Amino acid sequence: MKSEIFSMAINNRNKVKFLYGMNEVLLEPYYITRERNGRKVIYGRMCNTSEIKKFEYNKIVNIKVFNNIKFSPIIPILSRAV
Question: Which pLDDT score is estimated for 80?
């Protein structure tokens, strides 16, 4: 379910908000992948910064997609990993 939500947000360039641990995160999502250890992660740019961060799926809860707030990517969005 998280993958579908994040994939839709990436394709539509919607900002997302979620809880990560005890912190609220506002993110421009860019890329979903798996690490070598098998954990699924999402990369994105923290809003109002130029910082790209990685977040582990298993620590993400309460996802909200802002359908009316679009962003312009500062890095290219890849449709599929090669």
Answer: 52
